[in-house]
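Predict the 3D structure for this chain.
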Amino acid sequence: MATINPYLNLPGTTEEAFNFYKSVFGGEFLMVIRFKDSPGGSENVAEADKDKLMHIALPIGKNILMATDSIGEMGMGYKQGNNYHVSINTDSKEEAETIFAALSAGGQVMVPLAMAEWGDLFGWFIDKFGISWMVSYSPNRPQ
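Done. Predicted structure below.
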């Protein structure tokens, strides 16, 4: 069964925000990836943004709060109100394909469901109601 987690876009303040959230909720970060450490990050990111966070994940109870720094062209016109996604993590490739196809029907696919450079099946769309969704399946995640 798929899990649903919030995914935040922040304007270059992700590290500060997540250190604050960690101080409130406790726990340890599951993942911290800087743009400079991502595949292709050195070539495609401005020097000033290389130390910004491409992805961070903090477990809170049975959920995971995740985020990225919304930078440069990747910022997609950041403004208060468009700074979140609903992230669905599935248990199988088939489940990811089914959910992606059903929820994106009538909406706008931003990133087609495909294998991403970090090794997950990933896709992003805005549904017909204007809600931003990310669907992923991690084939290397322990079940």
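The mean pLDDT is 86.
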